[in-house]
Each structure stands twice: as structure tokens, then as C-alpha cells.
């Protein structure tokens, strides 16, 4: 039997008062939402508080402004907007977030992000190796806030770049540029030998000659 869609679960919850429908919806997406919050605030207790607050706000909004949800589309993307606002409010209150200058968005010509070189590594190489996720997660923590956020939204919450652009209030090109720059920075932060191992796992990858044991110079991520 095909599981119900998010839209069907929302209708069952709002029209029929089906609490199990909302529980199913929450279980389906809570890991994505909590993972994003955890990555943003980097404190499990705070992330849990923000998650509870976001779900409370979502339930209120679903009942009070149902039309808003229906116009927004996917429940996950709609709820992520609520979670993002909660996270940014918390970060701003502690002066840990400053908004990026958007003066270079596509309406005024190519942005700074759009002029980045195209040498970003493959996202799957960087983010798809589960047994090394702790190492990658620590590197993501070192990214500038805007880059960290787009990585979390794309690979933790599985949002599309269109949804990310809408949530963050930038053009799709800017969202893509931030992701590309984040990947470049992650490659600078992580051990080069880690990438040699990762690249070697890709289909058709050539055999690489081992390097010496001299450590690579530490490079800071570029904002």
C-alpha cells in the first residue's frame, strides 16, 4: 500500500482532526528539521527547544492561516521557513548571525557568488560518505553562516535550490553560488588525503600515487 503524501496527511489532520496523521508527518520530517536546527545553533538542548517551538508555531499557523500553507506547497519547505526564523532569531539575539549584503543579486547584474570559479568538488564526494560524517560535520561547522545554512538545507533537509532561494530571500544563482563556495571551502578545511580516498571510490577513477606525510597548510574558509 502506498503511504499517504504530505498533502493527504495535512488534510486528514486539519479536516478530520486525525492526530495520527500529524504524528506520521512529523516522524517523516523531524530528522531533517532537527538536523538543520542542530547544524545552525550547534547546541542540542537549544536545537531541541527551537524544534519544539517551531512545531508549536507550525500547528498554530496550519489552523489559523491554512491558506498560507496551501499556497506555499510542500509541508517540509513551509515548516522549514518557521524553523529557520526561529534559528535566526536565536542566533541574532546572541550576535552570531549577520545577514549577507544582497546588493549583488541577479536584478542588478551578476553577484559576487555568481563570479566564483567552477572548481568546486562534487557534493556527493564531500557529503555522501556516512562513515566519515563526523569529520565532515565538524568542517561544516567552520563554514561562514550563509554557506553552512545552504549545505544543511540541501543535504540535511533535502530542500531544492528553488526552495532554498525562496526561504533565504535570494536568487537561485546566489543559492547555487553559496553551495559551490561551501564545497570549495570544505575541500580546503578537510585533509587532502581524505579527498584522494574519496575520489578513488568514484567509478572510473584512476589510481593515485600516495603522497608524502607532510601536512597540508591550514587554510581558513573564505567568507
Quick structural summary:
By secondary structure, the chain is an all-alpha fold. 64% of the residues lie in helices and 0% in strands.
Layout of helices and strands:
Layout: H1 6-16, H2 19-41, H3 44-64, H4 66-72, H5 75-93, H6 123-127, H7 133-141, H8 145-156, H9 161-168, H10 172-189, H11 192-200
Helix pairs in contact: 1-2, 2-3, 2-5, 2-8, 3-4, 3-5, 8-10, 9-10
Total strands? 0
Specify the CATH class of the largest domain.
Mainly Alpha
* Pattern of helices and strands: HHHHHHHHHHH
CATH topology of the largest domain: Rna Polymerase Sigma Factor, Chain: A
Structurally, the number of domains stands at 2
Residue share in helix? 55-70%
- What is the assigned CATH homologous superfamily of the largest domain? RNA polymerase sigma factor, region 2, helix turn helix motif
Overall pLDDT, averaged?
A: 75
User: Spans of 5+ residues with little confidence (pLDDT < 50)?
Assistant: 100-122, 198-218
| Overall outline | globular
Strand content: under 5%
Distance between the termini: 48 Å
| Class from secondary-structure proportions | mainly alpha
Amino acid at each position: 500500500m502506498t503511504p499517504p503524501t504530505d498533502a493527504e496527511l495535512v488534510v486528514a489532520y486539519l479536516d478530520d482532526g486525525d492526530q495520527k496523521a500529524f504524528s506520521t508527518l512529523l516522524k517523516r520530517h523531524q530528522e531533517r528539521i532537527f538536523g538543520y536546527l542542530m547544524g545552525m545553533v550547534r547546541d542540542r538542548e537549544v536545537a531541541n527547544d527551537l524544534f519544539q517551538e517551531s512545531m508549536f508555531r507550525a500547528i498554530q499557523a496550519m489552523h489559523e492561516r491554512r491558506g498560507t500553507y496551501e499556497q506555499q506547497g510542500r509541508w517540509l519547505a513551509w515548516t522549514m521557513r518557521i524553523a529557520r526564523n526561529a534559528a535566526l532569531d536565536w542566533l541574532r539575539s546572541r550576535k552570531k548571525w549577520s545577514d549577507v549584503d544582497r546588493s549583488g543579486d541577479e536584478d542588478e547584474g551578476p553577484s559576487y557568488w555568481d563570479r566564483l570559479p567552477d572548481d568546486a568538488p562534487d557534493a556527493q564526494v564531500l557529503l555522501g560518505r556516512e562513515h566519515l560524517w563526523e569529520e565532515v560535520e565538524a568542517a561544516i561547522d567552520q563554514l561562514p553562516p550563509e554557506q553552512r545554512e545552504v549545505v544543511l538545507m540541501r543535504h540535511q533537509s533535502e530542500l531544492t535550490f528553488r526552495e532554498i532561494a525562496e526561504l533565504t530571500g535570494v536568487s537561485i544563482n546566489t543559492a547555487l553560488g553559496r553551495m559551490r563556495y561551501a564545497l570549495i571551502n570544505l575541500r580546503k578545511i578537510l585533509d587532502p588525503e581524505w579527498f584522494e580516498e574519496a575520489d578513488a571510490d568514484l567509478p572510473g577513477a584512476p589510481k593515485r600515487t600516495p603522497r608524502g606525510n607532510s601536512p597540508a597548510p591550514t587554510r581558513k574558509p573564505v567568507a
